[in-house]
Specification:
This protein is an alpha/beta fold. The chain has one domain: Metallo-dependent phosphatases (Purple Acid Phosphatase, chain A, domain 2), CATH 3.60.21. The chain contains nine helices and eleven strands. It is globular.
């Protein structure tokens, strides 16, 4: 069996005032003990969209020998593009910061910072690598998607809503129908969530947070992605964004979310992630999903 860990929403920054790095070390130690072959990370690895955050995060990856295409696969989250609020005053100025963000520049910075993780992958371009496809063990097609919407005063005022625009959608559709991924076990890496807000959990703390954020955590045009994944027999869609760890089925697709692995927005503050076990036999499309409590 191949063994994969799914983690996401790590929010590492150079000035670590909330102890996220300590939690990340604990998480990576746990993954190492379980002899995992590969790690999927679905965005918000860093917190404030700055190069110094990437340097700090990559330093940790190198300590564990993980900054390698055979060890990790990644996709981009909203914090890699727009960053986040660091102090109370930032709340008032953050929409303006999002408006002034150079979206393309931030996507390129993401690619440059994680270039070793893209080695051997088919990418769109170095300026915009998404969607990309990487084949692992001649069996598993890992497909990375950028689900971050551009800034909009109405549709995306604080940079946290999602969208897969037409150009990327068409490229994704072509990729999923290609011979390259035909008969492969297909895993999509994307940041934004697909669950209904009122079904994400009955935890009071998390539900209140989602109520506040419901207009600023939306993935637009989900229906066509549901259809695309189902029609092309995508086995797993891995995402983050909600800071709660769960798995769920919608429209014939299975979604796995491990975004409470470092920064849980839940009442109990329990950190959790998933391990996915996939048979080495190329003809077997079965898998086992295990929820891990830290």
């Amino acid at each position: 069996m191949y063994k994969f860990a799914h983690i996401t929403d790590l929010h590492i920054k150079s000035l670590d005032l909330k102890g996220h790095k300590k939690h990340l070390y604990n998480l990576l130690d746990d993954i190492k003990r379980r002899n995992v072959d590969h790690i999927f990370i679905t965005g918000d690895m860093i917190d404030n969209a700055e190069e110094k955050d990437y340097i700090q995060f990559n330093k940790i990856l190198k300590e564990y020998g993980l900054l390698d295409t055979s060890k990790i696969s990644v996709t981009i989250g909203n914090h890699e593009i727009f960053g986040g609020t660091q102090v109370a005053d930032d709340v008032f100025y953050f929409p303006t910061r999002c408006q002034n963000t150079d979206y393309k520049k931030q996507v390129k910075l993401f690619y440059d910072s994680f270039k070793p993780a893209f080695e051997g992958a088919d990418i769109n371009s170095e300026e915009n690598p998404f969607p990309y496809c990487k084949i692992l063990y001649d069996k598993i097609a890992v497909i990375g998607v950028n689900s971050n919407a551009h800034w909009s005063k109405i549709k995306n005022p604080i940079g946290s809503n999602g969208a897969v625009y037409d150009d990327q959608y068409k490229a994704l559709e072509k990729l999923l129908k290609s011979d390259k991924v035909k008969d492969k076990f297909k895993i999509v890496l994307i940041h934004h969530h697909f669950n209904k807000m009122n079904e994400v959990g009955n935890n009071i703390t998390h539900s209140l947070w989602l109520f506040i954020e419901r207009r600023t955590m939306k993935l637009y045009n989900k229906k066509r992605l549901f259809r695309l994944f189902k029609q092309n027999k995508v086995e797993l869609v891995l995402h983050g964004h909600t800071h709660i760890t769960d798995s769920y089925s919608r429209k014939g697709n299975l979604f796995v979310n491990s975004s409470a692995c470092v920064v849980p927005f839940t009442e109990g503050k329990v950190r959790k992630y998933h391990i996915i076990k996939i048979p080495k036999d190329k003809n077997k499309k079965t898998f086992d999903l295990q929820l891990i409590d830290l």
